[in-house]
Design a protein that fits this description.
By secondary structure, the chain is α+β, with helices and mostly antiparallel strands. It is built from 26 helices and 26 strands. It comes from Dicentrarchus labrax (European seabass).
Length: about 750
């Protein structure tokens, strides 16, 4: 790309484009030849122009227009988006893109049939070039020529980039892919009429499973080869799919895929074995060498995925990893106000000094460092092995470093080691002739010493921005992990996060969630007046529902109901169903989109579908159940064709199909007998349930909305559980083991509500 205002490429070599519902990426050019001299089979209207640059495109199989009224009128009359391509006659990469894409018959036809295509010489019209280059720079962080911008018929830009290869190359989407995605956005309205049914859940779920199984990498888990991303939305879908298909081979396979992936990630270098938490993604297929940045949204979703795996499998490893993640967040990403910071950078200055930051410098180790730190000979170990010998064996530390050159393109990790568990504790113990307990003790001691060394190293940059959406995700994590483990400290931290959201990210006067807040110079919290988006509302509401189920304090349920009402006012598409990503009354937003991809974070619509379903059971509001169904119906096309793009939404589709169980506990919130019943419920993975407590107060929030609760009472003065489904409730249960059986297989007598 003939660059303007260059910026270093991001770690994976891509710069994210603006404004598509799913991620589309602009890649940096890396080679090519001069212009071609192919025979002139086509002639378009640019042949009448004087600009050398436009004349260079006069024989493309593209229906080019020069910048002008004729093109604008055609776009309006035919309601087509405009593809604006800007360059100049001596621009090398303009020639490359012309040869690769604009001389391509297939791409030429796609462009001509679906877009009004305009060629512009930036040297003739610098005024026009400047307007759209400003947009590209503002939305992608860089710019240059050729510049590729897509406009509405009113000439407002909605997507911008620079050079695109013609077709997908490695992980780089080509021009054809980008054009196809834009056509899909325009051609497939995400809408449904009230009363329209969602697609059939078992069929959609089976297809989603098959698509995930097809892309699953069996040796190390995860989906596709390098780079590998954690994708918690996929893992949560697989565990939910297993929960309703336990007796089928597909269900067993789904569970194995999820647990193996989580296990391999926990052992890999993507997991910070010294200071906890997970890095952004792995550059290789074995989860070894990561991109070292740590994001709050990854910690939040992975903590939930790991604690869910512990419920499903009973394996202590998964519960330990969930606790580790929250230990990291509490220590390194927490603000004293109760909020959570956004991220830690990948780069930092090496401990050895120098002005240049290096990727991973804070996290990696040389063999010499390890040997100097852990010199003691371990009593009874084979060959007078030192603590360093045992540690280096277990975590794959090598004298020459354990990072392959192809994983280190900039040479920043030469001679360094990224810790990865290479052997089970049992094998390491056998190798050195010592007990498993001794190995565990030695490794824990070594990690503690290394954590102390880390504290003396220059830290990576900490992004202290506190976002509503990501804080909502983290609230869910503390609530859910705290509930499963019965950990009061985690639940107190969750409540602190809930209070933070209400105090600093809720404008009570305007009745709006704020997008973000920051730490001021005096460590005070500053909240700029940027209104929240759909994700902020949806993720916070979900967090509040999880916090209610973990603490059974109705103030959180009450606020969730208020926020859902406000979300409906601000973002709901009354006609087509579902929610727009931003306020449709905001004239500064060029296109109103409904996000249709569960990616690094779930989409606001996927989470909202679940929130509406859960809230309909808590409040008795039937319109929220109908709204959830219409939302799912609106995404029918995407759910039917590519459910792998919306695994979180498929989970809600399944929850609607199998109907939620209402688990009602009659008892005093802090009483031991109530706690025993709750511990039983929280030990199980029950994706299709709502949990509520009634203490006999007819004026309570829940009894006011669900009068039937008033007819439920304690048996013989003991905390009592009722399990209801489809307006039918079980007979009352007071014994935790009997409740467990009832929840797992439903075997008990029932009575009509």
């Amino acid at each position: 790309v003939c660059m303007v205002a260059p910026r270093p490429p991001s770690a994976n070599g891509y710069i994210k484009l603006s404004a598509l519902g799913s991620s589309v990426f602009m890649s940096m050019a890396s080679g090519g030849e001069g212009p071609s001299s192919s025979p002139q089979r086509h002639t378009n209207r640019l042949a009448k122009e004087r600009s050398p640059y436009l004349l260079q495109h006069a024989h493309n199989p593209v229906d080019w227009y020069p910048w002008g009224q004729e093109a604008f009128d055609k776009a309006k009359n035919e309601d087509k988006p405009i593809f604006l391509s800007v360059g100049y006659s001596t621009c090398h990469w303009c020639h490359v893109m012309e040869r690769e894409s604009f001389e391509d018959e297939e791409i030429g036809k796609i462009l001509s049939d679906n877009f009004v295509c305009i060629k512009l010489d930036r040297e003739e019209r610098p005024d026009v070039d400047k307007v759209y280059m400003t947009f590209v720079q503002a939305t992608s962080g860089g710019g240059g020529w050729p510049m590729s911008v897509w406009l509405t018929p009113e000439l407002r830009p909605f997507i911008g980039g620079t050079y695109f290869p013609p077709r997908d190359h490695a992980r780089r989407p080509g021009l054809k892919t980008v054009l196809t995605r834009i056509m899909e956005q325009k051609g497939t309205a995400v809408a449904a009429n009230p009363g329209e049914s969602p697609p059939l859940a078992p069929d959609v779920a089976n297809r989603c499973f098959q698509q995930l199984a097809h892309s699953y990498e069996e040796e190390y888990g995860g989906f596709r080869d390098a780079p590998k991303f954690p994708t918690p939305v996929n893992l949560m879908f697989l565990m939910s799919y297993w929960s309703v298909n336990r007796s089928t081979s597909e269900g067993v396979e789904a569970l194995q895929m999820a647990l193996h992936t989580l296990r391999m990630m926990a052992l890999g270098g993507i997991h910070d074995h010294v200071a906890q938490g997970f890095h952004r993604y792995s550059t290789d297929s074995s989860w070894h060498v990561p991109h070292f940045e740590k994001m709050l949204y990854d910690q939040a979703q992975l903590a939930v995925a790991y604690i869910t795996a512990s419920q499903v499998s009973g394996e202590q490893l998964f519960a330990d990893v969930a606790k580790d993640i929250l230990l990291y967040v509490t220590r390194d990403l927490s603000d004293k106000s109760g909020g959570f910071y956004s991220a830690e950078d990948a780069d930092s200055v090496p401990a050895s000094g120098g002005p240049e930051k290096r990727e991973g410098a804070f996290c990696v180790w040389t063999a010499t460092e390890v040997r100097e730190l852990l010199p003691d000979v371990v009593e009874g170990a084979t060959g007078s092995a030192t603590q360093a010998d045992i540690f280096m064996h277990h975590y794959g530390v090598k004298v020459q470093g354990n990072v392959a050159p192809e994983q280190d393109p900039h040479g920043e990790l030469q001679g360094q080691n990224v810790l990865i568990v290479r052997y089970s504790v049992e094998l390491t113990a056998a190798h050195f002739g010592i007990s498993v307990e001794k190995v565990n003790e030695l490794l824990a001691s070594a990690r503690g010493k290394m954590a102390e060394v880390r504290k003396s190293r220059p830290r990576p940059h900490l992004d202290t921005k506190m976002l509503g959406s990501w804080n909502g995700l983290m609230l869910s994590a503390y609530a859910r992990v705290g509930a499963v483990l019965g950990d009061k400290a985690l639940l107190e931290r969750a409540a602190q996060a809930g209070n933070f959201l209400k105090e600093h990210l809720w404008d009570a006067e305007q009745q709006t969630i704020l997008r973000s807040c920051y730490r001021g110079d005096e460590m005070e919290v500053q909240s700029p007046p940027i209104s929240g988006f759909l994700d902020d509302y949806a993720f916070i509401i979900c967090g509040l529902l999880d916090l209610y189920e973990a603490t059974l304090q109705t103030e959180w349920l009450q606020w969730a109901e208020e926020l859902q009402l406000r979300q409906d006012e601000l973002f709901l598409d009354d006609q087509g169903g579902g929610y727009f990503s931003s306020d449709p009354s905001d004239n500064t937003v060029l296109l109103q989109l409904k996000e249709d991809q569960d990616g690094a974070e779930p989409s606001g619509n996927s989470v909202s579908a679940s929130n509406l379903l859960r809230l309909s059971h808590y409040t008795g509001r039937q319109e929220w159940l109908q709204r959830s169904q219409q939302l799912l119906a609106a995404f029918t096309d995407r759910l039917t064709r590519v459910p792998i793009a919306l695994p979180e939404m498929v989970r809600t589709l399944m929850a609607q199909h199998y109907t939620l169980k209402q688990i009602v506990i009659c008892g005093q919130r802090d009483a031991p007998d109530t706690a025993s019943l709750l511990a039983t419920i929280n030990s199980l993975f029950l994706p299709h349930k709502v949990l509520m407590l009634t203490d006999g107060d007819a004026d309570s929030f829940l009894c006011q909305r669900l009068p039937v609760l008033s007819s439920m009472s304690q048996q013989d003065g003991v905390a009592t559980a009722y399990v209801c489904q489809d307006f039918t409730c079980s007979l009352p249960v007071t014994d935790p083991q009997e409740l467990r059986r009832l929840l797992l297989d439903g075997t008990t007598e029932t009575q009509a509500e």
